[in-house]
Write a structure and sequence with these properties.
Keywords: Signal. It comes from Sapientia aquatica. This is DUF4124 domain-containing protein. InterPro entries: DUF4124. The protein is mainly alpha-helical. It folds into two domains: 46 residues, no CATH class; 76 residues. Helices cover 52% and strands 9% of the residues. It has three helices and three strands. Strands 2-1-3 form a three-stranded antiparallel sheet, covered by helices on one side. The protein is elongated and about 95 Å long. The two termini are 62 Å apart.
């Protein structure tokens, strides 16, 4: 354990040391080595470490406009794409609203009609809960589509 601790402490000490700080290794009466930046105790020796190498940070690149051969979409094409996108979102919103209305009619405010296979009340409650969750999901989809259309 001590054999792993000493190199780790040395690395930490070297990593935390400033460029102009001195590092000392001190050995106590039991032979335990400690590393530090103060070597005024008995049995301390200065460690000769190589100088700290530094590199300047790379210069920040300035944002330039797109190169001349970069593909550009003309205004007419872009407006057509936006109109198509809006139409697709509108169609999806209408379909989701229709689905919501159908689910709401079937749900009947939490009291849907019992089906023939639901003699067991637990099955009826399970279907009612699934309808409620489907209504919530559908409402969330409608809200998301309306937000997207608003953008």
């Amino acid at each position: 354990m001590k054999q792993l601790l000493i190199p780790a402490l040395m690395l930490i000490s070297v990593g935390l040391a400033h460029a102009d700080s001195d590092i000392y290794v001190c050995t106590d009466a039991n032979g335990v080595k400690t590393y530090g930046n103060v070597g005024d105790a008995k049995g301390c020796k200065k460690v000769d470490l190589p100088g700290l190498t530094t590199f300047p940070a790379p210069a920040a690149k300035k944002v330039t406009k797109a190169p001349g051969d970069f593909p550009k979409v003309d205004d007419y094409t872009q407006k057509k794409r936006e109109a198509d996108r809006k139409q697709i979102l509108t169609d999806e919103l209408k379909a989701e609203q229709k689905k919501y209305d159908e689910l709401s009619a079937e749900y009947k405010n939490g009291e849907p009609d019992r089906q023939g296979g639901e003699r067991n009340y637990a099955k009826y409650q399970e279907r009612t809960q699934e309808l409620k969750e489907s209504l919530n999901r559908s409402q969330q989809n409608i809200d998301a589509l309306q937000r997207e259309l608003g953008n």
